[in-house]
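Researcher: Go.
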Amino acid sequence: MRYVASVAALLVCCVAPGPAAAGGESATFRGSCSLTGEVRFDPGLGATALSTTTHARAAGHCSGVLTLPDGSDRRLDDVLASYRGRASGQQSCAVGTTQGWSRLEVAGATVRFELTETRLGAVAVIRLRDATGETTVAAASVSPSHDSLDQVLACARPDGLTRTPVAITTTSTP
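Model: Structure:
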């Protein structure tokens, strides 16, 4: 169970519109994405909650409506996308709450988010807020292809769980 919690923490860091405004005008996106990647924790997660920074990178596909900064809309169908995020907060292998920023690169445009994540055990709920104030909810979990025993053992090591593969699914109304 602890390993799933760590994966959730990773997802939280990746989808948020905090520093979004700092990079100029941002596109917005309404639709769904299915992404896989990796989350890194510094310092590593263990049994005790510590102030931790999470970095996430993922890639996959998105479908929906992309609105460019000039207001024009583009319909996307299963288009390649990449995601990066960073969040900080109190985290352990079992629980965590983080805040940060993230960005989604899709169809040549950048969508920036402020991110908040709440994780309990294997479930992480991530709220991504874009430049217009619209919120998308994401679910994050440890990648199904990963051996869960490795996660549990990593949480018990002195350096803790420092990275884990993650699967992220987002859905919003186009």
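Model: The chain has one domain: 2-171.
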